[in-house]
Amino acid sequence: MAKLHPESQELLQRLAALGWGPLTKLTPQQARQYSDERARTTSSPTVEFKGTTQQIACGKSSIPVRLYYPTDYYSKPALLVFFHGGGFVFGSLDSHHDAVSSVAQLAKCAVASVDYRLAPEHKFPRAVEDALECTQWFMSADNRESVGLA
User: Fold this and answer.
1) Distance between CA atoms of 53 and 148, rounded to whole angstroms?
2) What is the arrangement of strands in the sheet containing 61-69, beginning at the earlier edge strand?
3) Which one, 3, 56, 92, 98, has least CB within 10 Å?
4) Cβ-count burial of 28 within 10 angstroms (0-12 exposed, 13-18 middle, 19+ buried)?
């Protein structure tokens, strides 16, 4: 049987030390807390964060979006719109901060990380509608210009 890489073994031990048990046994609130703790426990040195967090008007609501820019970007970089994982129940701007920072830096593009509304407080298809509305917001040239994008 193949052995896990030592770094993978260490990660699994750190996650087990959190003492949460299987994710499937947690309430949505516990899963969110676990996700945030896991992000803090497993975070690596991040690339420099250059950007802002702001609210954008999506449909009838205002959705938090964190804009990331690579440290050496040129004027009006290309944009990737990012939606965190978590089955539409957990995950946040903070839980995916390291990953999104790295994508912006390595891809040399701006990244808009969307903090869509989560279930069960917001019933399906609300999260999907938030994703669509935020993507449409960024498709508008005036809106992209307002945040310094191409």
Assistant:
1) 14
2) 50-58, 61-69, 110-114, 79-83
3) 3
4) middle
Q: How far is CA 107 from CA 68, 78, 85, in A?
A: 11, 10, 20
Q: Go through the chain and tell me how many residues it has.
A: 150
Owner of token pair 């509304």 = 117
Specify the pLDDT at position 42: 67
pLDDT category of residue 3 using cuts at 50, 70 and 90: confident
* Neighbouring residues of 118: CB distance < 8 A, sequence distance ≥ 6: 28, 32, 86, 88, 89, 90, 91, 127
The whole-number pLDDT of residue 39 equals 75
Residue 134 phi/psi, 5-degree rounding, is -70, -40
Does residue 6 have a cis bond before it (omega within 30 degrees)? no
The angle subtended at Cα 15 by Cα 131 and Cα 118, nearest 5°, is: 20
Tell me the whole-structure pTM to 2 decimals.
Answer: 0.80
C-alpha closest to that of 116 among 98, 102, 134, 100: 134
Are the CB atoms for 41 and 20 separated by under 8 Å? no
Residue 50 bridge partners (DSSP): 69
